[in-house]
Amino acid sequence: MPIERRSIQGLRPLFGRLGLWLCLCLSAVAVLAEPPPRTPDNPKPAEGDVVIDLPNESQLVFRRLTVPGPGFWGDQQRVIQIGDATGGIFEGLQRTQISGSFPNADGTGWEILLAKYELTRGQYIAVMGLERLLAVSADPEDQKIPTLDGRAKREALMRPLASVSHQDIQDFIRTLNQWLFDPAHPERTTKLPTYADVPGFIRLPTEEELEYATRGGQPALEAGVFDDRLPFDAARLDEYAWHLGNAKHQLRPIGLRQPNGLGLYDLIGNAQEMTTGVFRPEIWQGKPGGVAVRGGSVSTPPADLRSSLRAELDVYAWKPDEGRIEERRSYNTGARLAIGSNVVLTTAQRKALEDEYLAYRNETRRAMPVGRTLDNLVAQASVQLGTVDPIIERLMADNPALREPLQTVQVYMDRARDRLELAQRESARSLAQDAARNGVNLSVYLSRLERLAATLESAQKLAELSTRYQDQVEAVERSIREIETAAREQLQGYRDKIAKLGEYEPDYIAQAFKTLGEGELPVRERAVMELLAVHVEEFAEQRRAEPERWLEEFRARFKDFKDN
């Protein structure tokens, strides 16, 4: 058995495999329970399909993906790990929160509505017309469509739409939404899901939605296989995906391979799929580029396929030989649609979100990835180490012969975790100490400004009596400007340190203040530490710096201040 296959299987606990098998069996049973009719737009109909009508008797078919947790803002169940430690440089492990666009029927969770198949040429023609496809497509095979009939034409129309630009896809979505929401035809929106009684609209999916779907969604989370490199045994890749090894750069009609446990086809392979976001090297951060595409394609080597695979589509491609930019029309890049909804729809609904946010901010949010900085690499390393423990446990359970070396690895990991723990505590203490130093300097400058303000007032009164005091006025004003500049620099440093310190866990922050507060402190420094503790706590809760308000609080605290 190849090493890669053995490793993947080793990551799956027995109950995970049984859980996934059960999900697939249940899906197979559901297929028999009154599926919608078979059509070229839905060649593998299944119970639970959400069918949206298109012009010219065509359809779009969506599947509902459950997102756990009833609250709008989220809970711990929605925190997922994406990326792949063995993937490319753009697939580093990251933790994020997955969210749905629509509440489910019983109010126990939310739903993502994602297209069951990739967008096809036939669906594009149904909305935009054949002439439009012939005008925008860079695929010579599309020019043959008017000459085809029978099976050849049907298969051509069932192939994923590709060789068109990103803007062509957006034009299609815009035209489709206009058709759906034509005031003269209110019946067209009746099959769309709703949020706050407002129907959703068609859009491209996000990267997180696609990776969540590719990994198998909530059933995979519950089965313990969500973090696996592939959502199926690597030995069965050909059953689930079209790739370079079995498709040789040629896109294939939708629905020919096996669906995943959610009933979705070709999430891996066939056409790589555009997303709604620009490409950033680490999804949330880094230089914005073209458009992020997901899933690999018929040109991807089979060994490179994985749930986390992502790449950049250079929407505006530079042609060095011609010295110009052109819109990229990639032969292996297409799209999969989603149904979305706006966040704020009514005043009453916004008020409900605000009320719920208060509880969310004080409880769940602080533990969410949004409540942690991506710059805190030590904290990230600590979190990632924690994800390795269950993997090692599974490997030891599945490979008794490896128990001793894996236990050695575990010992080294425990030591690394201890060192990271120490590093975080020391880093938090150092940041608190630096912020306190900035605060002390700021308070000293404010005290000087207070005294200079009194001096300036006296000098201005003397200058009214005699011009020979004007030089004194100018000297005092110059000193005030210099100290105000210095005070601003200290305030900026104070703000920056708080922004970093506020990202640490509360225990590290509390330990930092406890350590710095031990022993006798000068009166001024003690006063600064009291303000600093309040400001750090506010930032940790609200993730917002308010330096101007902090400055006024410093002014009030140190007005007429005496150091002894």
From TrEMBL:
Residue ranges annotated for the Sulfatase-modifying factor enzyme-like domain, each copy included: 113-312
InterPro entries: CTDL_fold, Sulfatase_Mod_Factor_Kinase, SUMF_dom, SUMF_sf
Keywords, alphabetical: Coiled coil
Coiled-coil stretches: 406-433
Gene Ontology molecular-function annotations: formylglycine-generating oxidase activity
UniProt keyword Coiled coil, yes or no: yes
Lineage: superkingdom: Bacteria
Pfam families: FGE-sulfatase (PF03781)
Keyword Coiled coil part of the UniProt annotation: yes
Protein's name in the database: SUMF1/EgtB/PvdO family nonheme iron enzyme
Source species: Allochromatium humboldtianum
